[in-house]
Amino acid sequence: MKKSYFPALFIFLGTLTLLSILFLPNIWDKSAVESVTLSNDSTFNLPKIKKAVDYRATTNEGRQEYLFNLLKDPVSQEIPRGIRTKELNFGQELANELATKAKAINNMAWSEIGPYDVGGRTRGLAIDQRNSNILLAGGVSGGIWKSTDGGKTWMLKSNPGENLGVTDIVQHPNSLNTWYYTTGEYYSSTDARGAGGGTYYGSGIYKSTDNGESWSVIASTEDTDNTFNSPFDFISAIEINPTTGSIFFTSNAFGIFRTTDDFNTYSVVLGGVNEHRYADIEITSTGKIYGVVSTGFSSSQGNSTPGVYVSTDDGTNWQDITPDDFPTTHYRSEIGVAPSFEDLFYLLTDTGGGANGLSFYLFVTSNLNYVSAINRSDNIPNFGGMVGDLNPQGGYNLVCVVSPETHNTVFIGGTNLFRSKNGFGSPVNSSNDPDIWIGGYAYANNVSGYNNHHPDQHNLIFDPTNPKRAFSAQDGGISVTNDITSTPVAWSLREDGYNVTQFYTVSIHPDSANTKIIGGTQDNGSPFFKFNTSGSHPASNDVSSGDGSFAYMGKNYFLTSSQRGRVIRYNYSGTGDPTNWSYVAPSEANGQLFIHPFAVDPSNEDYVAYPSGNHILLNKEMTTLSRNTGSENMNGWTRLRHVSVGSGQNITALSFSTKYPSSRLYLGGSSDSEKPKILRMDNMEDDSTFTVTTISGADEG
């Protein structure tokens, strides 16, 4: 597959640009900024998506398929090599051209407007060992951020020209101003199971020597190749041996690497090309190294048999300590070492069978002639219900961490975050034990979220000066608790200004003085807020749940949507806030895309068009539809029987014109095997009058 950093730029611009407004002097009156107080109307209760056990896994696959189809070359069916660089260059050329034609363009100023209280998918997270108020965090497509006040505020430290796909961060234990971060998120893609999809390719390993203020790629690791054939394409972890200074990193499809000279040279010490899809490594304070390498891409085996290993000589030699009952086929694993007893570690492993396919072992390595490995897989909590398990989503989210205070307190994470105070040494009999269920979804097991926490766990770290204080990284961003041992755990968000949210779409109000705005985001719903370019930042409110998708901010109402075409209409309260939500998607539609489009005629907001495969459904009553909080229905919807982009095509884009003339509907059809089509419908009252144009110069797909 060809590699591109463009997906990272795409989301980064969605974060830092899509939710910005271009202002010319005096284009709007600051006195018109509305109050940010949300409506107290009791009818505003966000509808929840009822999610099956495998819901989040299929959502992740759909998300990656959507991004891949959005960015791929239709001929090669791959994301073009160097597309990010080409786009940056084109943007600069365009800016230069416009600057010579219109000097007014130089007076345009961009102001970031939010939302400031929504984070995003975060894997890299670390604390300065000298000062626990200093944190470094990395969004998987949002770059490196630094906080000097315990996460209360954040500053972006990445350059837009750098790779923004951060997967892990480490501080050098022997040179504390030196930090490294790795790039390339393998877990987000169905490539992790060999099926293709949108990926966040890496470009190497980045280094800072000024305590995270500035970063540059290490030249020997920089990867500009156009295929998945480098150990720097997908790097999942980086660790440093405090006794030798050797740096280790794990590379998907390659194994575990070591450098003893700060990447002037490096070599694989465990694993081999295509022998293992995943690897993990942990290093103790005394230099003992634990490693695990997974099943490979084929049945062939090479230098290292898949399994669990230990090294006591800086990774030169490895002892296989895989227990006899360890799964034959296994994918991603996470090692959790006990800081209070470093001869003991836990191992959480995904075998590809969802929550029921997880394995969990306790290892004791005090005597390497007799390593104890205890299988505690049967004790992994599964509380049943809709969201009561530890779904790893094919390895997308997996955490195994041990408390610094005691080796018996262990934390494991998938969609949820579970805690055991006896190392999961006994079965769980409760249906929803708040002493165990401490994050992700709420332990009420009703699909609501745990307070100030988020599903899909990616990291958990502890304050070096206070082992009860812990920071959690998940799809929602970052949360902190001052007592990880309490029941229930009280989390606080650390997302203010940590702007790594991944936006699919955005919609602004048609009146330039109106400050309402809404956008659809990856797994953080659709934030609705009223922006302010100075002073305090207003709160946002999620009005869709799930993966927010397309949105329309109108004068009479607004529409928001989530994955697979679920559309909700909101009215405005007297203060302009959301109220009286209603399900309005047509129940008889089919073939919805993961991020499914719709279009509203801004000249007549009664008219809404909704694709159904290669046809269109039209609603002419959206403004006056009766409220519906039950099942989706066909109220107001009519299938336009004569309007079609043709067999083998799907409508993937649509829009109403606003002028010359207004209310003209354009539809875009695409197919993997045919040339794309543009359909134009001039009269919404007569579906027999439309024009279809095939783009003759375009390639199939």
Give structural notes.
The protein is mainly beta. It has two domains: 6-72 and 503-694, Methylamine Dehydrogenase, Chain H; 122-493, YVTN repeat-like/Quinoprotein amine dehydrogenase (Methylamine Dehydrogenase, Chain H, 7 Propeller), CATH 2.130.10.10. The chain has a four-stranded antiparallel beta sheet with strand order 3-4-5-6, with no helix packed on it. A four-stranded antiparallel beta sheet has the order 7-8-9-10, with no helix packed on it.
Query: In the CATH scheme, what's the topology name of the largest domain?
Result: Methylamine Dehydrogenase, Chain H
- Number of domain modules: 2
Overall pLDDT level: 86
Shape: globular
- Which radius of gyration do the C-alpha atoms yield? 26 Å
CATH architecture of the largest domain: 7 Propeller
Given this structure, which CATH class of the largest domain is correct? Answer: Mainly Beta
Number of helices: 3
Which range does the strand content fall in? Answer: 25-35%
According to DSSP, the number of beta strands is 46
N- and C-termini, Cα separation: 17 Å
Largest sheet: 4 strands, antiparallel
Strand order of the largest sheet: 3-4-5-6
In the predicted model, the low-confidence regions spanning at least 5 consecutive residues are: 1-44, 48-57, 189-197
Structural class given helices, strands, pairing? mainly beta
